[in-house]
Prior knowledge:
Layout: H1 3-13, E1 27-32, E2 35-41, H2 50-60, E3 69-72, H3 86-92, E4 97-100, H4 112-119, E5 123-126, H5 132-140, H6 142-150, E6 154-161, H7 181-192, E7 196-200, H8 201-207, E8 223-227, E9 245-249, H9 255-263, E10 268-270, H10 278-287, E11 292-297, H11 299-309, E12 318-323, E13 335-336, E14 353-354, E15 357-363, E16 366-372
Parallel strand pairs: 3-4, 4-5, 6-11, 6-12, 7-8, 7-11, 8-9, 9-10
Antiparallel strand pairs: 1-2, 1-3, 12-16, 13-14, 15-16
Helix pairs in contact: 3-4
EC number: 3.5.4.26, 1.1.1.193
Protein name: Riboflavin biosynthesis protein RibD
Pfam families: dCMP_cyt_deam_1 (PF00383), RibD_C (PF01872)
Amino acid sequence: MxxxxxxxxxxxxxxxxxxxxxxxxxxxxxxxDGIIIGEGWHKRVGNSHAEAMAIxxxxxxxxxxxxxxxxxxxxxxxxYGRTPPCTNTIARHxxxxxxxGSIDTFWRIHKEGIKQLRQLGVEVELMSKRDTLYKxxxxxxxxxxxxxxxxxxxxxxxxxxxxxxxxxxxDDDSIRTVHYKKVQKDEDYELNISDAVLVDWQYVxxxxxxxxxxxxxxxxxxxxxxxxxxxxxxIDKQVFRDGNVLVVHTTKAPASRVHLYHExxxxxxxxxxxxxxxxxxxxxxxxxKITRLLVEGGxxxxxxxxxxxxxxxxxxxxxxxxxxxxxxxxxxxxxxVLPSGGVGRVSMVDEKLxxxxxxxxxxxxxxxxxxxxxxx
Length: 376
């Protein structure tokens, strides 16, 4: 296997980040006689798959496809859906070999795509799980891999705080919201690539956020999920500007408030209990094909997720922290505790969440820290 070709396919796949849900991001490179003759990626749900796009790209350049090798980051599909099976398309065009970066976890395709390719006379090679590129391919599609395997969205817990090495910040007054332009641009990107964002009603009431994707993603819709047990939030807030919102409440909500929201045409999801049930909410969002959920904030929300994660390890998948200021010798923590007593009450101690892998990036004076709790 030529690693450079698979690396090129991975770069192509990244061009679909944030647009393909509930489908995965997939890239494909078509090679013949050591020359790349076609390139494709899955642009958005309903559009051609990466394999078909690479084939069409080669045709447009009038290349002969027969006898070529296809490098694709994910196992080709083998069923009829919005598009025909890629396995049939590959075989019909005389592609002699397919190199696959990762196995599809979706039950209708899992290893069946490989089986069908071989039945159609196409040679198949799988990338080794020990390959460093394999880890990058898997990391790209974590939201899809979780949703396809357990039906729940990939949950990213976001938090911004001031932090000094080996300290616990107990005073809420010491917390300063990060407003640097570079950091804001990065935070916007995390929203842009999500399918939904979740906050509590106090967050909406005080900050009146817009939660509107921008730039390259400006036409994308991100579902705005508001936890409001008693429906206390004013309905003139910007999050209620259209129907792309979901307010989650409990039996504590007065009938008058339920009627008010109904009359205003605001979509609601009601628990039949007096308590918020995070797992049930995630199951509901999964059925709505939400694959990546960004939990933006609210002290009560952090507590709800952290408490449930103690008993169910797939509730929280990743923590995303913007920490400022940062000591130059500060090392990435291996374990992390979510804020539970209020914004900024952050401690780096060995309990709560076990971080399996972590990456960090310096953005001005701010450290962007990503800790992965689950790897699918």
